[in-house]
Amino acid sequence: MTLTASALHSSIPHPAYASVQPVIKSGGLLSTELLSSGWAGFFAGCLHTLSGPDHLVALAPLSIGRSRLESGLVGALWGCGHDAGQIIFGLLFLLLKDRLHIEVLRIWGTRVVGLTLLLIGATGIREASEVQESGLILEGVDMSGSEPLQQAPAVAPRKKKVGFTTFATGVVHGLQPDALLMVLPALALPSRFAGAAYLGMFLVGTVFSMGSYTAFVGSCSEALKDRIPKITEKLTWAASLVAVCMGLALLVGQFFGFTLY
Q1: Which one, 48, 132, 155, 185, has least CB within 10 Å?
Q2: Residue 145 domain-assigned?
Q3: pLDDT, tens digit, for every residue of 16-52?
Q4: Which of 221, 242, 233 is nearest to 54 (CA)?
Q5: Number of domains forming the structure of the chain
């Protein structure tokens, strides 16, 4: 009888231990929920960014002719601007969702994106032309068609500037209704912590994917530069023309009532 009572007593959990059990389980569930939400946000940010043709076309002219590190920084800066635009749009949606006309914003947002693509393409074409003219001057060729120059001045190609303009371009591309892809899934998650993890990792995924893409483009152009003469100028011309064509297509599509994506 004594053995049976002691066995029953040992099998009954202590009240303090029993109260700790739910805490441990809830903590494990919370960490699992945060991890799954964070990874989901990270992959969603990568896919959302790399699946946008306007993103890829806008960044290609800015990345060609740079080193892998410089190109990666360009993409990361553009991605930070894109994140800022998405955050601004998301906050406006949450605060003024009853007053916002999503279709009107989408139309005007697409027009602004088209104009920025035209600006990026035109800037890339101008820079490629300047580099080509500088190369001819360094070789002693007179652009006016007269006799070859006796002494060629040491003119170095001007480096493309990266700074606030790149960041602002990312902001413009982020101010689109597809920013709701970042907000709505976070609102549907079971807790605020999971939603915050999703949002934070979505932004990190955007910066990571853009930096990786531009680093890849820059490293490829650097690798080809030693094998193919003037490949940087040719790639810049091609990427810039694609940006101009896509910008025109977006604007024309808005005029005729169709969209490319």
Answers
A1: 155
A2: no
A3: 444 434 434 445 555 788 888 888 889 988 988 888 7
A4: 242
A5: 1
- Indicate whether 159 belongs to any domain: no
- pLDDT value at position 28? 58
List the one residue out of 165, 162, 159, 171 whose CA is nearest residue 74. Answer: 162
What secondary structure does DSSP assign to 103-164, as a single string? HHHHHHHHHHHHHHHHHHHHHHHHHHHHHHHHHHHHTT--TTSSSPPSS---PPPPPPP-SH
For residue 185, give every residue at least 6 positions away whose Cβ sits within 8 Å of its Cβ, in sequence order, or none. Answer: 40, 41, 44, 198
60 located within any domain: yes
Pick from 50, 49, 43: nearest CA to 82? 49
Arithmetic mean of pLDDT over the chain: 75
Instruction: Write out the two tokens for 70.
Output: 């410089």
218, amino acid identity: G
Range of the domain at 252: 32-135+166-256
Structure tokens at 65: 């002719």
> Residues, the chain, total?
261
Question: Would you say 209 and 45 are in contact if contact means Cβ atoms under 8 Å apart?
Answer: yes
> Quick one: pLDDT at residue 25?
43
Residues sharing a CB contact under 8 Å with residue 130, sequence separation 6 or more, in sequence order: 157, 158
Is residue 15 a part of any domain in this protein?
no
* DSSP string computed for 19-64: HHHHHHHHHHHHHHHHHHHHHHHHHHHHHHHHT-HHHHHHHHHHHT
Spatial CB neighbours of 136, under 8 Å, sequence gap ≥ 6: 143
Interval 172-217: pLDDT, tens: 888 877 777 667 777 777 788 888 888 889 999 999 999 999 999 9
CA distance 83 to 77: 10
